[in-house]
Amino acid sequence: YVTLGASATDADGRCKDLPALPEGTTHVRLAFDTETYFSKKQAEAQQDAPRVRDSGAFFPEVTIAFAVVPGEHYHVP
């Protein structure tokens, strides 16, 4: 895998500034920085954010790989 870019979700949960996939791309891997996300939520004192342990989040990063067709749009839950 080659890093093509980085993004953060907007209020709608979308990453609108991700780059287009290169021609011939068949698989994509997304890495979600969950530790930073939940740390920010905890700092904002949102009640539904899970507690971050002293040693960091239980899953500090979540990586998802999936098959793609360039030009298509995908919803990753």
Q: How much of the sequence is in beta strands?
A: 15-25%
Enumerate the strands of the largest sheet in spatial order, edge to edge or round the barrel: 1-2
Tally of helical runs: 1
Radius of gyration from the CA trace?
15 Å
Beta strand count: 2
What is the N-to-C succession of helices and strands? EHE
Supply the helix-strand structural class: alpha+beta
Instruction: Give the overall average pLDDT.
Output: 84
Low-confidence stretches: none
Protein name: Hydroxyisourate hydrolase
GO molecular function: hydrolase activity
Domain Transthyretin/hydroxyisourate hydrolase: 4-77
Organism: Streptomyces sp. SID7499
Structure description:
- This protein has 77 residues and is of the alpha+beta class.
- The protein has a domain at 27-67.
- Helices cover 13% and strands 16% of the residues.
- It has 1 helix and 2 strands, in the order E-H-E.
- Residues 4-77 form the Transthyretin/hydroxyisourate hydrolase domain.
- GO terms for molecular function: hydrolase activity.
- This is Hydroxyisourate hydrolase.
- Keywords: Hydrolase.
Compact description:
It holds the Pfam family Transthyretin. By secondary structure, this protein is of the alpha+beta class.
Q: Could you list some keywords that capture this structure?
A:
alpha+beta; two-stranded antiparallel sheet; elongated; 77 residues
